[in-house]
Amino acid sequence: MYQEPTAESPASSSRPPAERGTVAEQEAAAHRGRGGNGVLTGYAVVTLAGGVAGLYCTKLLADAGARIVFAEPPQGIALRRRTSSEATPEPGIDGALFQFLTGAGHSVIIDRSRPDDRDLLDALLADADAVVWSPGGDPADDPRFAPAALRERHPHLVVTTITPFGLDGPWAGRPATEFTLQAWSGGIVGLGRGAPERAPIHVGGEVGEWFAGAHAAAATLTARHRALRTGTGELVDLSMLETQILGLSYYPVSFYETVNRPFRTQRRLSRPGVATAADGLIAVGCGTAQQWFDLCVMVGHPEWIDEDPTPAITERTNEKAGEIDAWFAEHTVAEIRELATAFRIPNSPVAGGADVTEIDQHRAREFFTVNPRSGFVQPGPPFRTTPTLLRAPEPAPALGEHTGHYRNTAGTAREHGTNSAVHRSLTGTADPLRTRRRGADSASHRAPTGAGNPLPFEGLRVLDMTTFWAGPSCTHYLALQGAEVIHVESAQRPDGTRLIAGVPVDEDRWWEKSGIFSGLNTNKRGITVDFRTDAGREILRRLVASCDVIVENYTPRVIEQIGLDYDTVRSLRPDAIMVRMPGFGLDGPWRDNPAFAYVIEDASGLTWRTGYPDQNPVEPYSLGDPNAGVHALVGVLLALEHRRHTGRGVLVEAAMVDAALNITAEQVIEYSAYGTLLEREGNRGPHAAPQNLYRAAGVDEFGRSDNWVALAVATDEQWAALTAALGEPAWASAPPLRTAAGRRAHHDEIDEHLSAWCADRPAGEIVDVLWAAGVPVAEVRQPHRQIEIPQLGHRNFFEPVPHPVNPTARHSTVPARFSAGPARYHRAHAPLLGQDNDMVLRELGYSAQEIATLEKDKVIGGSPGF
């Protein structure tokens, strides 16, 4: 049985909530539960990270009440002045993006050349619970504050590092950008994004930075959860390449090694996809036979239904593209949406920074808010909770605003032999785990080994009522980190990922041969329940009563029709944490609309920034799902924190679109703050020039002239290194090209020269030459070739998983290495359909005879449709 970790001792407290702590402590916990200061009040984090990933990580923690201290160089971190357009913040006013990411934080100037400042930073670290670190900034690049040095001097800290490839291994320290990481991950080509006659297309908007930040927040909270049991910190070594693999490709290695073919091998445009209506852009999805039939009727061609059914739906929609496009062009966005919604065909306006705030669903839910310091529009939180675990937005700090205060309190603390005053002076409270550590011998807090290092969620029991990608990715992380996860399917309607392996239905046990299902569900137990029946709903009620966490991602009406809304769950298990993951939220006019990843991308701005400027945007077709999953995971971890404080449960409403609107925040912020509409730039980007894909010599593994390299020059120093590697050609020595602005102005000319240089060289040679020179560069790889990347092998990112039906296949793990373990993540293969029916039902009190009756009545079963 799961027991909440506590700060009082490494072992969990068994006292009932009413007996935990003093009355004052109980009142403080209740205040946290109401969200006055956030559930992480008393949790302190020092930030030695200056990029979007690090600051989005700490924003998620700050919104939950953590105290974030930014250790900044005298000139401030670079993000204070950054925009993604030609807009320039007014003198003395920080950039709008910085203000969004750092609300409620504290800024302390650290001049690493000054001994007193180095001492001050050490005092802040000694008083903190965690530090978030990334390279390329000051004081992070000071060897005295490198991760290994931090662990040595402050072993109580959770040290979360965010780097392109990880802290060690053959690729550690090599130059990379978010763009080149997309190429290495296979995410640029893996899901067939874009037209085959043009270069592959990356997902715009630097989404990889934001996605990595969300993963870093989840990893930090995971380490905190374990620290509450062990009384010590650990190193959390996050790789942005690995987060890109999990976000931009669809378990390609386990898929390939299960069925011996890639998931997808060529680019194609989805139809209708993003189409031009009479008054704007509209996206309509057509991924199933029923959706194709309905589309035929909607556009006035029901006769298409009776034509040759042999071609795939994609082929049929492309054959009819001309007629479909013509119909769309004659109708308004509102007219098309009304018809498509009536037919239950997934659809959405394609929104960007100028108009996403006007979508009726977002307005009805009052999702967007204003920045408390500068008044520009910004997104609300990526999930909602009942009770409220997050605090209201607060202003970002001015540069060095809190330096004097921390200098004074640190000096006072040193005089009295303690650093606790540094923390208490501003918050009036302290994390009891940190208090318990005070004065203890540091050697006793080094990371324990073996049995002393429990899996973070060992003993946590999770009911997993999810399907496809978003929900299972959330629960899979918990399963990999030790939770007991019971995955519920229906034999009549199995998890959708079982059905997309392309295995013929006349093949023996075809439903067990999906590498995608396997990639998302290892370590889980599996049962089938037909919850359309009274007996099936009774099984679910018993499961709910036995589980700590319940996660579901049906449309809202489904879970309510079977009588398992949060009020019912709470009556069955008062301290249960229920996570609901609707596409668009539990209220509003879109609440019951079908939500596929691409529709979420359309409604949030992910699609708007992806594609070529002379064509309609294209849907990323990927990130909408896993991004929702990792944000829901953060919600779960905060809810566990609340339950640890209060003994009470939480409802987490983790709408997929809310999570997506957070990682596209810059679009709304730039438009509101500066009047600048960020648009798609093909494979170019706002923070590197040149940045593009260039065709290399030779043919790919499929015999096509489709080899590409990704190159991104983010600094003037990298441009100098590139020109040297090219042999100092005369064209590269032109004075305008010495600055980023000049290179951007002459990007077309640079592309012509680089294209010519790359065309005569194999991709591997180009990478060898430019990487050695210090230029961010990558091969654009098919995603099933991820296993060839030596860095991933060094970090054991893939683990072989035997299976009773399929060949042993390598499966991805989690995108961070935890110094406290585990050494291996996959402990059991994904469950066969209904494999644990008997055992789980016996645990719930069912007799052998009752189980036999349930099987006879087809309430449970082991094959689709029995």
UniProtKB/TrEMBL annotation:
Keywords: Transferase. Residues 1-22, 409-452 are annotated as: Disordered. SUPFAM superfamilies: CoA-transferase family III (CaiB/BaiF). Gene3D superfamilies: Crotonobetainyl-coa:carnitine coa-transferase, domain 1, formyl-coa transferase, domain 3. GO terms for molecular function: CoA-transferase activity. Residues 418-428 have a biased composition (Polar residues). InterPro entries: CoA-transferase_III_domain, CoA-Trfase_fam_III, CoA-Trfase_III_dom3_sf, CoA-Trfase_III_dom_1_sf. Residues 1-20 have a biased composition (Low complexity). Pfam families: CoA_transf_3. Signal peptide: none annotated. The keyword Transferase applies. This is CoA transferase.
